[in-house]
C-alpha cells in the first residue's frame, strides 16, 4: 500500500518545517503533497521544497485544496493532515495493519497545551466520533483513493467539509477508529477561551445541522464569534 499525505496550508511559513520534518522517515512508503493557498509566495523552490514531493499552489479553501492535492496523488490511500497536527509513531503501518476491508478512518486525538480541559475536550471528541462515526479533520482522516472518488470528494464548502465527507463515507461503511493519538494544537482553544470555544463549536455544529450557510459559519469560526455583527 502506498500513501499520499496531503497537507493544506495557509500562512504556515513559520510552522510548516516543524510539520514536515517528522514525516521524512515515512517517505519510502508515501509521498508528501503540500497544497498552499498563501498569497504572494514564490512559485518555485520555497525553502521547504526539499521536504515534500509536490508543492501545489491553490486558491484559498481547505476543501478545495485537499481535493486538488488528492487529484494529483499517486497513493492508494489518502491521508489528510493539518499543518498544526502531528502523526503518532508508526501511523502508516498502523493503518495498513488494521484497515482490512474498511475504506476510511481516523485517529484519536490529543490537544497540546497545559489547560486540563484540553484533555477533557479531546476525550469528548474521541468518544463522540466513536458513537457517531463522524470524524473531524483534526483527527486526520484517511481514505482509500477509490472510495474518496466514489463519494465525490470533499464538498467544496467554507467549513464543515470534514463532517460532510464523513457522512458520505459512512454510506460505504463505518470508519476505522484508531486509538493511537495524533497531537493537534490547542492554541485556538486557548486563544478564544476554552469554555467559550466549546460553546461556539457546539453552536456551529448545531446550526450546520439545521442548514445555516457554511460561509457564515466559517466567518464566525475564524473570529470566535457566535453572531455576525
TrEMBL record:
Subcellular location field: Cell membrane
CDD domains in the record: GT_2_like_a
Start and end residues of each Glycosyltransferase 2-like domain: 4-100
NCBIfam families, per the entry: glyco_like_mftF
Domain of life: Bacteria
Primary location class: membrane
Keywords of this entry: Cell membrane, Glycosyltransferase, Membrane, Transferase
Organism expressing this protein natively: Candidatus Methylobacter oryzae
Name recorded for this polypeptide: Glycosyltransferase
Amino acid at each position: 500500500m502506498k500513501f499520499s499525505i496531503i497537507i493544506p496550508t495557509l500562512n504556515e511559513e513559520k510552522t510548516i518545517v516543524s510539520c514536515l520534518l517528522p514525516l521524512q522517515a515515512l517517505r519510502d512508503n508515501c509521498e508528501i503533497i503540500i497544497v498552499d493557498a498563501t498569497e504572494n509566495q514564490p512559485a518555485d523552490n520555497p525553502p521547504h521544497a526539499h521536504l515534500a514531493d509536490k508543492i501545489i499552489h491553490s486558491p484559498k479553501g481547505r476543501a478545495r485544496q485537499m481535493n486538488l492535492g488528492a487529484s494529483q496523488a499517486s497513493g492508494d490511500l489518502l491521508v489528510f493532515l493539518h499543518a498544526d497536527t502531528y502523526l503518532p509513531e508508526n501511523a502508516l503501518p498502523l493503518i495498513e495493519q488494521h484497515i482490512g476491508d474498511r475504506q476510511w478512518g481516523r485517529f484519536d486525538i490529543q490537544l497540546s497545551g497545559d489547560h486540563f480541559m484540553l484533555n477533557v475536550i479531546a476525550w469528548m471528541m474521541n468518544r463522540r466520533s466513536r458513537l457517531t462515526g463522524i470524524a473531524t479533520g483534526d483527527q486526520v482522516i484517511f481514505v482509500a483513493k477509490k472510495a474518496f472518488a466514489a463519494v465525490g470528494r470533499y464538498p467544496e464548502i467554507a467549513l464543515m467539509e470534514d463532517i460532510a465527507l464523513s457522512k458520505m463515507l459512512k454510506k460505504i461503511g463505518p470508519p476505522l477508529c484508531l486509538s493511537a493519538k495524533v497531537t493537534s494544537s490547542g492554541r485556538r482553544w486557548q486563544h478564544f477561551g476554552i469554555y467559550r470555544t466549546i460553546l461556539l463549536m457546539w453552536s456551529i455544529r448545531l446550526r450546520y445541522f439545521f442548514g445555516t450557510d457554511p460561509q457564515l459559519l466559517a466567518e464566525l469560526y475564524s473570529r470566535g464569534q457566535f453572531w455576525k455583527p
